[in-house]
Amino acid sequence: MISLNNKLREFFTQPTSIYGKPIARRLVLGVAFFLLFMIILSSDFVSDKVSLEVGQVSDRDVIAPRTVAYVDVIKTKKFEDEVLASVANVYDLDVTAIAKAEENIGAIFSEAKQVVGNKELVSAEQKKEKLQQGLQLPLPNNVLDGLVHLDAASMINAEEQSKSILRKFFQRGIRDDDLDIARKHIVIETEEMGLDKRVESVIAGIGQALLKPNFILNVRETDKRKQSAINSMEPVRETVKKGQIMVRRGDIVTPEQIHAVEELGLSKGHVNEMRIFGLAIFVIAVMIIILGYMYRFAYPIYTNDLYLVLLGLITLVTLLLGKAAHYYSDFSAPIAAGALLVAILIDARLGVVISIALALLFGIIVEHDLRAVSTVLIASLIGVYSVSKMAHGYSLTKTGIIIAGVNFVVIGATGFIEQLNSAQILMQGVQGIVSGIAASVITTGLLPYLENAFNITTPLKLLDLAQPNHPLLQRLLLDAPGSYHHSVLVGNLAETAAGYIHADPVTVRVGAYYHDIGKIKRPYFFVENQAGNENPHDKIAPSLSTLIVTSHIKDGVDLCREYKLPQIIIDIVQQHHGTMLVSYFYKRATENEHSECIIEADFRYEGPRPQSKEAALIMLADACEAAVRSIGKPNKNRIEATVRKIIRERLHDGQLDECNVTLKDLNVIGDVFIRVLSSMFHTRIEYPDTLKELERRKAKNGNSNKQSSAKDDSNAGNGTDSEIGVK
């Protein structure tokens, strides 16, 4: 199982390349998850097909598989025609029409008088031809014939009557559709005047020729009013609710029923391609949002294919759970489990984004039921917040209870908004409680399998490692009790500072507990485990002492792997000394006769340097605690000087160059260390009953204590030396 996990991790954590296979692998994974999401979400889009025709007797009950509201196109079109017909056309009055008509009449009769008075024109045909040429308006032949045969008095009368009758009709108002009727009425009214036939024909002919609409249709304003009327109208909608019987067995099928069946996509094997297309666009958009967030705000996760596979699997399983619960009740779907798993296994902030994405995708399953979507969204967000505080005492059991309570409140509130009856709200609220508890149970059940399959270390797993009854910690306590006590103090010191620089306090505490685990192999070569005054380093060469001291890093890594500790703890064990110089043994070596042959690199730890805030914090806490412990008479000023010196030396030596610790962080770390160490190593009063005993011991030890005190002061600035028994 371990070998399979390692191969899986190695396969999916290869660096991506534009030209290599990893990019193609990522595309294949994306397409595969997209298709799986589509299959789950579109399963209701392709329902049992119903083949019905108008007039056919139905042989079955046709039940709506979902709620759908659609526009009845035929009824809407009919309603639209009625609305348009009720909108009156807008006309503009042409006030110049009468003046132009009278002007034209005057011109006609003026030209006629000239033609009739022209002595050169003998025949009527010549006069008619001349008159037609002089007029800008063509007149019928009978009007021209009448004009050339009128005498002066008749011509004057005809002119006045023509103006009078046209004025009358223009005052009434003439529209395009009224023009033909108005021309006929001119003939009738002219005949009623009782004039000479020639005069009547002239008046009627001129009136018909000059009559035109003086009410002009305002097309723009009319269209505007019609469009406004159409915009204000609501289309005729029909609603078919889920579970409604659209066609009963034995009914004669009507066109309306056929239309409803078609809208639901149930007719004659028809698949609504547009719904599938829309769903595909929606799913792609959600996936792009998630990937875009990771690319912009969580790039390390974006570049890790193993995390992407885990994220896809969690989303897939969550949608399957939501789909299964949907057939019973939308409010019992444990969608929050997906958000909890992402927040615990990958990243809490990504868990918030996944909460939103899962709620959107769940909206497809529940046919865009806003109450169900709101419930799962709020529950997921609350769940992510709860597990993100797990390091401070929260648990999945408590998280499940919180989600259940939130579900009950949200379901009740939205139920009151929709004015549902109390019994229905209560039933749905109980289902919400079940959903919250189920989310917690599912998360608890899946968590260990996903942890092992994807080799992920969670806060819960780290908290288990911090238990004092862990076999490796038990060995440290029994074989190297001084190192165990030192590790506990380093854990307290580092964990206190972790919260101030946004490091993971759980990782820091557990890493501190195991950072010196390699000292189990040779505990007596480290001063905290030496019961007496004898120091084995006094009998061996400095180079060998350096080799023994630095080997506790490799020994610690081997023990961590033997006990299957997470990689994040192994990294801290390997990096907590970085490439620091074992200065005491290096100084002893350079004092020998062959000091010119000494290579400084041989007296440094192999590293690597700290790669994370947590590893850097443990490096500093380890050195500061050991150095302050070596001070003979610690006080706040000496502790502060020691802590600042150690931090400054690590910084100048480049030990903090490869981690994301800022100068501001170092200043904060120093302040916290000084405050905590001052309280840990404060001066204690000497009780009277023990004064004589202390004086006796002091007299007995004599010179040895003085030498030891001098060495304490000289080595207080170097935490590494103080760890190895060189005080």
UniProtKB/TrEMBL annotation:
Pfam families: 7TM-7TMR_HD, 7TMR-HDED, HD. Residues 696-727 are annotated as: Disordered. The chain crosses the membrane at residues 23-41, 276-295, 307-328, 340-364, 370-387, 399-417, 429-450. Gene3D superfamilies: Hypothetical protein af1432. Residues 479-636 form the HD/PDEase domain. GO terms for molecular function: hydrolase activity. This is 7TM receptor with intracellular metal dependent phosphohydrolase. SMART domains: HDc (SM00471). The keyword Amino-acid biosynthesis does not apply. Keywords: Hydrolase, Membrane, Receptor, Transmembrane, Transmembrane helix. The lineage of its organism: Bacteria, Bacillati, Bacillota, Negativicutes, Selenomonadales. SUPFAM superfamilies: HD-domain/PDEase-like.
